């Protein structure tokens, strides 16, 4: 019978080790628990990727082998090339701006009492789905300033510095003493002092008249002066009112600019009062009265946010609105881990706040900024919902991206081979970014 000493002798065989993991679970049991997840991973990820790769080499019907023709279409098809160009714009600008804003918000909110509330407000868009955000911004970018917030703000700012006309559609009626000239109107005959001038116009809806407009008044003759009235010569109701003379229900053109012109030069000018009456000095005698084009220019209606030239930047703006909060929260978490002693040491050494931010804070946050930027880059390569919902049909081709073009080729145009090639191409674009992210994470673990 072997003694314990003999069992532990150098020549004795070692007892078999138990095949257990660190947590004490047998590897076979662990594999059985992982099996359902592996099956789902294979069915929902590995198989679709493999099938897409195979399908990308076949023609539209799926029966004929097309070789690399579908991949050639990626660089020859005009729609796909536009989508690729827009994807480059998305990858360059969207993650950069969102990360920069997140960094600024995270740093600034550390210095205010209501920083937590501000972070909550900025992060709230993340709780909204892409579909809902697309619908919101489709309304925000509406061309009509009465509906679209963006144009309401833009038009308001524009009208603060550039006066807008209140009479864009005003024009002379029949038998009018006015005739067209250079976008405005001028009297057919010279005017004389002491003889009131009638300047009747039509074409402005009553609800579009200036709020200060009052009932039009017939101007009185004044010796040594030119007097007159500019008014809306229109009374509701068939056969009601006197043409060419102010009626009790007709309104004056409040603020209408009137110029006295002689030999092509402006001798005098004035603006109509709220009741449409105006007065010019005696030097205007023998001139023609002109209503300049500035009275009738179309009101500024803002920018065509969803037009061909601005649709992509506008959609990127909506994406940044959603994801700046995500960037801010991650960067704020990284900022909380920075040793305050380093920041204070830099300030003691004489660095101002900008130098502390640029030379200390940002370098220490570089790993976090890289995580945020890479995550957003992967995200924008797959962007679909916002472009599909916000861009109207007239400019969707100009806002096209690869994910949207994949959908259009696969479903609208029934070209599954090209759609599969786009899917594979997108996967190839994402792999280098993911590889970079994995390498960076491994370096972090080794540290």
How does this structure look, described?
The protein has 447 residues and is an alpha+beta fold. Among the domains are: 77-152 and 305-414, MetI-like (MetI-like fold), CATH 1.10.3720; 178-295, no CATH class. The chain is built from 13 helices and eight strands. The chain has helices at 4-7, 27-55, 69-76, 78-108, 115-123, 130-140, 149-161, 311-336, 340-348, 353-381, 385-390, 402-412, 416-446; strands spanning 178-181, 184-187, 197-201, 226-232, 257-262, 265-271, 277-280, 288-291. It has a five-stranded antiparallel sheet with strand order 1-2-8-5-6, with no helix packed on it. β1 (178-181) and β2 form a beta hairpin. The protein is elongated and about 110 Å long. The two termini are 53 Å apart. The model is unreliable at 4-8 (pLDDT under 50).
Task: Give me some keywords for this one.
49% helix, alpha+beta, three-stranded mixed sheet, 13 helices, five-stranded antiparallel sheet, MetI-like fold, single chain, 447 residues, elongated
Largest sheet: 5 strands, antiparallel
Structural class category? alpha+beta
Mean pLDDT equals: 86
Quickly name the level 1 CATH class of the domain at 77-152 and 305-414: Mainly Alpha
CATH architectural group of the domain at 77-152 and 305-414: Orthogonal Bundle
Give me the strand/helix succession: HHHHHHHEEEEEEEEHHHHHH
CATH structural fold name of the domain at 77-152 and 305-414: MetI-like fold
């Amino acid at each position: 019978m072997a003694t314990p000493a003999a069992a532990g002798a150098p020549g004795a065989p070692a007892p078999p080790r138990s095949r257990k993991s660190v947590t004490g679970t047998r590897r076979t049991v662990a594999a059985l628990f992982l099996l359902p997840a592996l099956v789902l991973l294979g069915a929902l990820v590995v198989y679709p990727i493999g099938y897409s790769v195979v399908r990308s080499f076949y023609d539209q019907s799926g029966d004929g082998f097309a070789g690399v023709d579908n991949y050639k279409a990626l660089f020859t098809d005009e729609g796909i090339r536009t989508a690729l160009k827009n994807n480059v714009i998305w990858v360059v600008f969207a993650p950069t701006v969102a990360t920069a804003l997140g960094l600024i918000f995270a740093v600034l909110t550390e210095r205010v009492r209501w920083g937590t509330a501000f972070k909550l407000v900025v992060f709230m868009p993340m709780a909204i789905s892409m579909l809902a955000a697309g619908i919101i911004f489709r309304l925000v970018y509406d061309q009509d300033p009465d509906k679209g917030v963006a144009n309401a703000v833009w038009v308001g700012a524009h009208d603060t510095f550039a006066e807008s006309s209140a009479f864009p559609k005003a024009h002379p009626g029949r038998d009018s003493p006015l005739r067209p000239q250079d976008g405005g109107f001028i009297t057919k005959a010279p005017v004389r002092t002491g003889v009131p001038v009638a300047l009747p116009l039509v074409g402005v809806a009553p609800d579009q008249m200036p709020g200060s407009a009052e009932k039009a008044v017939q101007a009185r003759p004044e010796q040594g002066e030119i007097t007159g009235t500019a008014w809306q010569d229109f009374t509701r109701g068939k056969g009601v009112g006197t043409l060419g003379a102010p009626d009790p229900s007709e309104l004056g053109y409040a603020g209408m600019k009137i110029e006295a012109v002689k030999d092509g030069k402006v001798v005098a000018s004035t603006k109509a009062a709220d009741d449409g009456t105006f007065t010019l000095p005696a030097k205007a005698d023998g001139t023609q009265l002109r209503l300049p084009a500035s009275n009738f220019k179309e009101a500024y209606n803002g920018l065509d946010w969803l037009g061909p030239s601005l649709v992509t930047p506008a959609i990127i703006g909506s994406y940044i609105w959603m994801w700046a909060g995500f960037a801010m929260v991650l960067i704020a978490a990284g900022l909380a881990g920075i040793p305050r002693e380093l920041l204070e040491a830099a300030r003691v050494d004489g660095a101002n706040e900008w130098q502390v931010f640029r030379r200390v804070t940002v370098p220490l946050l570089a790993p976090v900024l890289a995580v945020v930027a890479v995550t957003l880059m992967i995200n924008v390569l797959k962007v679909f919902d916002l472009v599909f919902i916000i861009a109207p049909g007239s400019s969707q081709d100009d806002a096209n991206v690869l994910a949207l073009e994949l959908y259009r080729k696969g479903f609208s145009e029934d070209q599954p081979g090209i759609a599969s090639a786009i899917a594979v191409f997108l996967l190839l674009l994402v792999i280098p970014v993911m590889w970079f992210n994995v390498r960076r994470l491994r370096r972090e673990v080794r540290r």
